Amino acid sequence: MSIFDVLFRKKEPQSASIAKERLQIVLAHERSRGGGPDFLPDLKRDILQVVAKYVEISDEQINVQLESSAATSMLEINIEFQQKG
Amino acid sequence: MATVVTVTSGKGGVGKTTSSASFATGLALRGYKTVVIDFDVGLRNLDLIMGCERRVVYDLINVINGDASIKQALIKDKRVDGLFILPTSQTKDKDALNLEGVGRVIDELKQEFDYIVCDSPAGIEHGALAALYYADAAVVVTNPEVSSVRDSDRILGIMQSKSRRAERGDAPIKEHLLVTRYDAGRVERGEMLTLQDVQEILAVKMIGVIPESETVLTASNLGQPVVLAPESIAGQAYQDAVARFLGEERELRFLKAERKGLLSRLFGGG
Q1: Burial grade of B256 (CB within 10 A; 0-12, 13-18, 19 or more)
Q2: Among residues B213, B106, B204, which one has the least CA distance to residue B164?
Q3: Mutual orientation of helices B16-29 and B233-245 as an angle, nearest 10°?
């Protein structure tokens, strides 16, 4: 650090606090997914292929989630598609 | 009863081998008979850090395959009593580490040793899984830096789901956090995550913080675990970490930046 850095330092948010915030967000997301089975992306792809045989559908219109509680797990598959108008 | 301690991190280059070497040496200095095993098949380096690279004859893979006995493969440290090194193969690949074979070797070592320190390779694949599968305790080595913290979180998740203790439903692996390459000056300037930040994010018991120190490179140049350099603050910090691992209360040290003179602060050099 030189005298010029001291004189002309800008008031920016400190990078360490940005790092902490980014980490907290990404880890909250990854932990909520964690422990789930690894097959969900493949399952989603297969369902998409089957449904696409019959209706026009894109990747964003299908949502596959597994929710687990102590005793049971629930596989939730949501598929949206536009009605032909 | 022997304890298997895995030193792991997910990310590479954070100081796993340096920490394994100093941690194992520190345990032996405290009077525990200790062996440190290199699990990084194909990228052997623990032998260099421990300074025994010219004494390697047989390795872990030879023992797993039945080509050598454990006695033949163990290298006795010449500096510290009760400290042994089990090097790995430099030529084979990670598939040579089958879980069943590793289990046999660890069971046999448990008859002789108080602590079995497993130096994990980077990553979350075969070699890293083999290194953590039989763990009773883990030392997760983390730098105060986003990718290292994230990878540590990932490896903690893997220990909680894929270790033998997790599979059997036994008591979970005892997790310990070791923060390395900590630069107090950068922390004070808001350029580096603080110790509290890392601890809060990972929520694992902290057993030590190793300050960024030139003596670590010097020690590896010499093939001497840095814990054996008494004048080194990194070495002292490793001694503290071992003491805390063994259940002693010790206050964290070396968390303040060294104050520079006014001239060097005004005219750069830092």
Answers
A1: exposed
A2: B106
A3: 70
pLDDT, tens digit (0-9, with 9 covering 90-100), for B115-164:
999 999 999 999 999 999 999 999 999 999 999 999 999 999 999 999 99
The percent of chain B in helix, strand and coil, each rounded to the nearest 5, is 45, 15, 40
Q: Which among A12, A17, A23, A25 is the top mutation candidate for probing chain B, defined by the most B β-carbons within 10 Å of its own β-carbon?
A: A23
- Cβ proximity of B132 and B126 under 8 Å: no
How far is Cα B241 from Cα B143, in angstroms, rounded to an integer? 15
CA count, 13 A, side-chain hemisphere, B183: 12
pTM tops 0.95: no
The beta-strand segments (E) located in chain A are 62-68, 73-79
Q: Taking chain A, what is the end-to-end CA distance rounded to the nearest angstrom?
A: 66
- For residue B144, give the nearest of B19, B17, B14 by alpha carbon: B14
- Cβ-defined contact of A20 to B150 (cutoff 8 Å): no
Q: Which stretches does DSSP call E strand in B121-190? A: 137-142, 174-182
**Given this model, what pLDDT does residue B270 score?**
43
Residues B59-71: b if buried by 16+ CB within 10 A, e if exposed = bbbbbbeeebebe
Whether A1 sits inside 8 A of B150 (CB atoms) is no
Nearest CA in chain B to A26: B150
Q: Which residues pair with B227 in a beta bridge?
A: none
Question: CB–CB of B19/B153 below 8 Å?
Answer: no
| Neighboring chain B residues of A1 at a CB cutoff of 8 Å | 265, 268, 270
Distance CA B181, CA B179 (A): 7
Asked whether the ipTM of the predicted complex exceeds the cut of 0.85, the reply is: no
B111: helix, strand or coil: helix
For A37, what's the count of Cα atoms within 13 Å in the CB-facing half-sphere?
14
> In Å, what is the CA distance from B176 to each residue of B42, B131, B196, B247, B250?
27, 16, 15, 12, 15
Query: Which residue from B198, B159, B162 is spatially nearest to B175, judged by alpha carbons?
Result: B159
Task: Return d(Cα B270, Cα B265) in angstroms, integer.
Answer: 8
